[in-house]
Specification:
The protein contains two helices and seven strands. It is α+β, with helices and mostly antiparallel strands and about 120 residues long. It folds into two domains: about 80 residues, no CATH class; about 35 residues, no CATH class. The strands form two sheets. The protein has a four-stranded mixed β-sheet, covered by helices on one side. It has a three-stranded antiparallel β-sheet with strand order 3-4-5, with no helix packed on it. The two termini are about 35 Å apart.
Length: about 120
């Protein structure tokens, strides 16, 4: 399917592709992480050639939930954990943040969320 949804939730109205878990009320960030299947971390491992030689300055990003390699990145790449992205949004938008949808795409290689706040601010 073109949506490439791995896991997700949505509030009330189903998205065009009809995939994901429907919830009636917008969850907190902690609940959203679980509902969206985003309650995992990423760590980096060195990459080796078939001869056991380290490939300098390149790393495999690995998902903690199933040890799946999500991609290969340079040493400049900075990991942002899903929980940290949600926590940043909670802090930025303040009390009353409502997560409308969240999930992962492309076998976990991309993750994101959509939220609203009673304190709407144009950024």
């Amino acid at each position: 399917m073109a949506a490439e949804v791995e896991s997700m939730f949505y509030v009330r109205k189903a998205p065009w592709h009809g995939l994901g878990t429907k919830v009636e009320d917008a969850p907190t960030s902690e609940e959203a992480l679980k509902l969206a299947g985003l309650n995992w971390d990423v760590w980096q491992e060195k990459i080796y050639t078939g001869d056991g030689i380290v490939v300098n300055d390149y790393y495999a990003n690995i998902r903690s939930s199933d040890h799946k390699v999500l991609g290969v990145v340079s040493g400049r790449y900075q990991i942002v954990q899903n929980r940290d992205a949600f926590a940043f949004t909670d802090e930025l938008l303040g009390k009353g943040v409502q997560y409308e949808t969240a999930g992962s795409l492309k076998e976990g290689r991309k993750s994101g969320f959509w939220q609203s706040s009673p304190n709407s601010t144009a950024l």
